[in-house]
Amino acid sequence: MVGAGLTPGPAPAPGTGSAPGTGLAPGLADTTGPTLSSITLANTSLTLDEATIVTFTFSEAVDDFDARDIDLSDANGTLGQLSSTDGGITWTAVFTPTANVNAASNVIRMEMTGVSDAAGNAGVGQASSDNYTIDTRSAHPLGGLDKSKDTDRDNIVDVVEDDAPGIAGSLNAVGDGNGDGIADSTQSAVTSTRFILSPTAESNPGNAPYTPVTLVACSKGGKIDPDSSVRITSLVQKDSPLNLSQEMQMPIGLTSFRVLLARGHSETFSLYVDPTLGINGYWRKDGHGVWVNLASDPYGGKMELEGDRLRLDFSIADGGEYDADGKADGVITAPGGVAKMPLSIVGQGSDVGQFESWF
User: Fold this and answer.
1) Minimal CB count within 10 Å: which of 146, 188, 234, 317?
2) CB distance 219 to 191 below 8 Å
3) What is the pLDDT of residues 163-192, one digit of tens each?
4) What is the pLDDT of residue 3?
5) What angle do CA 340, 346, 348 make, to 5 degrees?
6) Looking at the domain assignment, is residue 209 inside a domain?
7) Torsion angle of the four alpha carbons 319, 325, 327, 328, in this order, in degrees rounded to the nearest 10
8) Does 2 reside within a domain?
9) Is residue 6 a part of any domain in this protein?
10) Domain assignment of residue 154, yes or no
């Protein structure tokens, strides 16, 4: 192999030969550094906390390979212990994504400078895995994930809440959907998640993108009393009602939540949504089947732009007209519509929908 830049050496002693995995003829010194042929993931479409096997394949056996050689800065996850079953040519590890939901780019990179072969030659070159996606659609709200990672017990796992975008100008860039400077995943009266941007997200989500949603209970302008005992136990997305009037648009369907509080008490809520949804209220049906906007002055509510988020403030009484179970039992359940209604007809009964009306 003179043409490869290698110099013939003395004949090998009896019983000796080429080093395993080098491909060198007997008697030739190994002066070529190993390269990384590929980084591959067994599954490139993942959900948060869904593990997959990553395989690192080298041009020859390496023996100084460990996690310090791997660049996970754009991988948004953790890598388990590396192991090899073929003498060091291929290595595998378990990779678990923990962040960067729906990001355009997620890759694992590696440079070979810290790796060497059996002859002591330093590795050369670098390689990257193919881009892979991290999705929460099947992990919403829990999707089989470890419930021990739901610190505030709201049925939204911490990794989802910790990925929530913050409010422009607030202290935290992520993980703080109501801009109070405290991680949502640690507050029982604040819940952040992502809804599918579709009125049929539950039955037919398709490939619609996500939009952030944050719910605050015991709210005063979107912030909570730190001593509050109110607890959100769920925040889920439901399909828009059937036979909904065309004039009423629910871009994310129904926002359904469940809250524990003192029996018979009334509670104030704030719901943060993207203002580009174009909605103008938080709508609930009253006892007569009429849609009313609880986030409006006649019902003691309001809408306010806070940073780059729209905040809907409204109140619901335990056992009252807008509590879905109608019982003063210390539980408020409310499937409401973050919806858009033409202002020209708000305050009038609907004469275009057979089944719907609003005020």
Assistant:
1) 146
2) no
3) 889 998 888 788 999 999 999 999 999 999
4) 36
5) 140
6) yes
7) -50
8) no
9) no
10) yes
Nearest-angstrom CA–CA distance, 217 and 312 = 12
Write the single-letter amino acid at 81.
Answer: Q
In a shared domain, residues 212 and 270: yes
- Our separate counts of H helices and E strands in the chain read 1, 23
Are 214 and 192 within 8 A, CB to CB?
Answer: yes
Q: Using the 8-state DSSP alphabet, how is residue 138 labeled?
A: G
Q: Find the DSSP H helices in the chain.
A: 158-161
In the chain, the percentage of residues whose pLDDT exceeds 90 is 49
**CA neighbor of 222 nearest in space, from 184, 261, 262, 174:** 184
> Which residue among 102, 135, 168 closes a domain?
135
- The answer on 202 and 99 residing in a single domain is no
Structural domain harbouring 123: 32-135
Quote the tokens at residue 318: 């335990």
> What per-residue confidence (pLDDT) applies to 265?
94
Amino acid identity for residue 228 in this structure: S
Residue where one domain finishes, among candidates 135, 167, 201: 135
**Do 95 and 56 meet the contact criterion of CB atoms below 8 Å apart?**
no
pTM for the whole thing?
Answer: 0.60
Tally of structural domains, the chain: 2
